[in-house]
Amino acid sequence: YSNVFPKNDPDATWRARRSNEIWNLIRDGYDFRVLRGVTAYGINHNKFAVFDGRLAEFGSYNYSFTSENSHYENALFTTQKNRVWAFKQYFDYLHDLSVPFAQAKENSWSQAVPKPPSGAQFGTVDFNGVQLPSVVFMPDGTVFEDAVVRAIDAAKKSVDVAMFALRSRLITDALGRAKARGVTVRMVMDESQSTSEYFAPFVGWLASQGIEVKTLAGPNPDSEFPMAEKTHHKFMILDGKLVETGSDNCTKRAYVDNYENAHFLDDKTDAAAFSF
User: Fold this and answer.
1) Rounded to 5, what percent of the chain is helix, strand, coil?
2) Least buried of 188, 220, 242, 254, by fewest C-beta within 10 Å?
């Protein structure tokens, strides 16, 4: 919704506007629908596509110039039947909640939305004896947050985190517990977010526990638009063999207000790629 109907603060130096790409899809008569987040502050934060019902693409990567040129990002392709099927069900759920462009601006958006598809039907992943959901769709209350905490608590050797934003007390505490029991914990966080009033306290607490926290902007240090340079990842690697990734940051907003997707991957090639 906020990309289709962008708003600007009166004193903003950068003016948001509807992209040419969105204008073209509307003008050319595509089946173009709009979805707002669960609350006034929530957003449809997904980044995924399903092709022919047999291939899915997902990760942190938006379809944008800055994602391609100014960010650190990840994107995955899968033909895993359960995962593709899950995405197809979730797309239908989002499609049913959305409205056509012509109705979207004046639509009365309900905060009482049905729960997204979930459950063991999408498969589970065993990590050091702990069963984790293969796929989690949001808004889900605490399902995703609890799953991440259980994964961190099950780690025996290492937890490596690359995150745009962190604002979950439960996940932050779990990382602290991992460090306290001798697990190697490392974090790379987006530079601009690490100093914000919302996220700095969480990053600072991790550092105070002796956890190695580093910050990173985008790949172009001499950019004329430094605010566009981001570490936009949302992933963690546990014991070098389990990956959690998707569209979700580790924030309460992601689980409660946003539409998001998250995945636990135990494929050796995926784990090696993310570790690299």
Assistant:
1) 35, 25, 40
2) 220
Q: Dihedral, CA atoms, 43, 45, 49, 55, nearest 10 degrees? A: -130
Q: From CA 188, how far away is CA 191, in angstroms rounded?
A: 9
**Beta-bridge partners for 212:** 186
- For residue 188, the surrounding DSSP H or E stretch is strand 184-190
Q: Is 123 helix (H, G, I), strand (E, B) or coil?
A: coil
Please choose, from the candidates 31, 3, 29, 35, the residue with its C-alpha nearest in 3D space to the C-alpha of residue 18.
Answer: 3
214-253: per-residue pLDDT in tens? 999 999 999 999 999 999 999 999 999 999 999 999 999 9
Q: Is 20 helix (H, G, I), strand (E, B) or coil?
A: helix
Rg, C-alpha atoms of the chain:
19
Closest by Cα among 253, 252, 36, 274 to 263:
274
The length of the chain in residues reads: 276
State the sign of the Cα–Cα–Cα–Cα dihedral 83, 263, 188, 224: positive
